[in-house]
Amino acid sequence: MRDLRTLFNEALNHYNNEDLGIILIKHYPFKKYKVGSAPLTENRNNNLEEVIRIRDCKVLPNTRAELARDLYMLSFYLCGMNAVDLFKISTDNVRNGRVDYNRSKTKGKRKDRAFISIRIIDEAKPLLEKYIGKLSQRYSSRTTFNSALKHGMKKLRELSGVQVVTLYGARHTFANTARNDCRMSKDDVALALNHVDNGNRVTDIYIAKDWRIIDDVQNKVMQFLRKSEPKILELIRKKEISR
Questions:
Q1: How confident is the model over 153-197, as pLDDT tens digits?
Q2: pTM, rounded to two decimals
Q3: Residue 140 contacts residue 121 (beta carbons within 8 Å)
Q4: CATH of 48-242 given 2.30.30, 1.10.443, 2.60.40, 1.10.10
Q5: Cβ(17)–Cβ(145) under 8 Å?
Q6: Which residues have a Cβ under 8 Å from the Cβ of 205 and sit 6 or more positions away?
Q7: Where in the chain is the domain with CATH 1.10.443?
Q8: Reduced to 3 states, what is the DSSP secondary structure of residue 60?
Q9: How far apart are CA 230 and CA 80, in angstroms?
Q10: Which of 117-126, 145-154, 192-201, 231-240 has the lowest mean pLDDT?
Q11: How many angstroms separate the CA atoms of 80 and 55, rounded?
Q12: Helix, strand, coil percentages for the chain (3-state, nearest 5)
């Protein structure tokens, strides 16, 4: 019903013009009918053991599995960058050790065009150099890119032993680690994810964007991963031996 309401509203905007007295669609069925709230988004985050299993997964070079593994980790390193933005960014987006870009999903809905600046950490550098500006050359369209990524994720799940692996899961995992493990505030995590807080729209007018906040969130997540890595690797080793 939410989709039908959206479609109906678009039809109203297209066919009706109240200023000129043109009312082709005279009735609005959703005036009294209340559409229920959307269901909660399914939690798709991985734990850090799964992140390391994905990172260290052995794959054949130049395969879809390699693509899936590399882009999952690159998204995680770059504060959960979406697949479409990884596909679109080029060397023109790299300035002073940062990736500056407009988030495709929401740039048409926001006055700031969903601009964000993400620091390129050491772990991200080789992956970014490997893929930046090349994905749009390698794949003729976002559709073919998404198809390759989908098949690559399926193979990556088989090879890594991680049951749930998606590119968007890297974004969920970054956010979950920042909030629950690093105890970063929800506001700071939201900023790192390039979300807008509707409750603070007026306040945001007075506050200039400070990318150092995002840097701090990113740094805390990476510090937590590095600190946890020895114990996690030992745990993985023990599990492999027990098999």
A1: 999 999 999 999 999 999 999 999 999 999 999 999 999 999 876
A2: 0.81
A3: no
A4: 1.10.443
A5: no
A6: none
A7: 48-242
A8: coil
A9: 24
A10: 192-201
A11: 15
A12: 60, 5, 35
